[in-house]
Structure formats: C-alpha cells, structure tokens
Amino acid sequence: xxxxxxxxxxxxxxxxxxxxxxxxxxxxxxxxxxxxxxxxxxxxxxxxxxxxxxxxxxxxxxxxxxxxxxxxxxxxxxxxxxxxxxxxxxxxxxxxxxxxxxxxxxxxxxxxxxxxxxxxxxxxxxxxxxxxxxx
Length: 135
Fold this sequence. Notes:
Elements: E1 5-14, E2 18-27, E3 42-47, E4 55-62, E5 68-75, H1 81-86, E6 90-93, H2 108-124, E7 130-134
Antiparallel strand pairs: 1-2, 1-7, 2-3, 3-6, 4-5
C-alpha cells in the first residue's frame, strides 16, 4: 500500500559547473498539497564539483579450467549533504506543495530527490536527466 507522497525532478539547465533541476512534490492526503497537475515549481541547484564519484574496485576471478576474468565493481560512497548545503554547493527553492521540512528548511521530497540524483550519479556515472520518488 502506498503512502501517496512523492515528487519528480528534471533538468532545466546545465553548464560546465552547475546543473539545475525543477521539481514538484505532492501529498494525496493533504488537500493543499495534492498538486494534481504536477506543477514543477521548485528548483534544486547542484554544483557539479560536489558530485561524488563511486570507487571502482577490480579483481581477478578464477573461472573453471584455470581461466581468469577481470571483475569491475562500483562501490557507492556516503555523501555528507548537510555540509554541501551549508557550503552553498546544493541549494533548494522549495515547492509550494511541500508539507514537511527538515532542520535545514529543505522540503523532505526535495531531499529525497537530491539523494536519488547523487545515488544515480554514482551507479551510472552520468548526471540523470530525470529522477522520481513516489511512495
């Protein structure tokens, strides 16, 4: 069973140093925050230098009959979002449909979307065009 909350973000502008996403949020249980038209009214700005690369681990795996194969694996790194927000590397203009805010006055859905952007960047190695969070 779903909670009926979520949001989505898409890139609106990208240059050498910065990527800007517009995002929307919704809460189906809250009449003021339903956002049935999915209006993108919030922004997430990320300094590309703050994106964290995943670690690449390589090892030789022994296969049957004495053969060997090089296995490459990405190891995801933890990201300290609060320090990046405090340093101004990540900034958020909240959607008017936000209903819950974290200690740093960023909407909960915006923070989930930021987490997904960084996670997809580490797993795929490229900045994602769109991300979604729907629970």
